[in-house]
Amino acid sequence: MASAPTVRVDTVVLIHGLWMTPRSWEHWVDRYAALGFKVLAPAWPGMEAEVAALRADPTPIAEQRIADMVDHYAAIIRDQPRPPIIMGHSFGGLVTQLLISRGLGAAGVAMHPAPVKGVLKLPLSTLRSGFSILRSPANRHRAVPFPPDDFAYAFGNTLSREDSDAAWERYAVPGAGHVFFEGAFANLDPNSATKADTHRDGRAPLLITTGTEDHVVPPTLARSAAGLYRPSRAVTAYHEFPGRSHFVGGEPGWEQEADYALEWAVEAANEFSPTVVSEAPGR
């Protein structure tokens, strides 16, 4: 199991992705809290309601914008007494990269992340995963339903259909059309909210991960995203998990990813993070 918190790194902020809510982190929250970490899993702004309520009234989902999400989490992170580890999944992984780009956090882990601006080609499986949103330009302004069949392809492809449907029932909410369009067409927008400073040297360490069976963020996409950081002298790492899908929150064996992410982040923060080593001794 992963390491206990150090004096300087004792908080983890978890950022959920598209089609999900903070409930998707329920197992990770318990695991990290049992080690003594303070664990925060805030919702996207306005999405604090439970899954059933967001399905019944998805208005808060339709209102999501990437810039607002980044500002929302930046305020939470700045409010912590020490720089936290930031972990995000899918579009939460994109937000993680944007926060690290701003100089926030002790370390960042972008798990199976939606790409920042600069990744030029989206794989067919990624487009297939978001087809329910991309199929109509009008969906840019909507919360788009995410039926069990789509969930089974995007999240449940390593599960039995029975287990996939059970996971859909517990976790899935409609997708934020505007957010997905912002990500999919970032390279056509000179002012895209997904643009990160991938050349920045004085940032916290960043780990990018994915799974070999991930349909939403397959290895080709995650490797391309990691490659954007080559000009930076800051620590950037990449890791693939064999046999893993996009469902990091609840796929059997999720503990492997949770422990790897935390152990890497704690070690990298203590050894390489400018936001940690600059703290006064004993703080």
Automatic annotation (TrEMBL):
Gene3D superfamilies: alpha/beta hydrolase. The keyword Hydrolase applies. The keyword Hydrolase applies. One of its GO terms (molecular function) is hydrolase activity. It comes from the Bacteria. SUPFAM superfamilies: alpha/beta-Hydrolases. Residues 12-250 form the AB hydrolase-1 domain. This is Alpha/beta fold hydrolase. Keywords: Hydrolase.
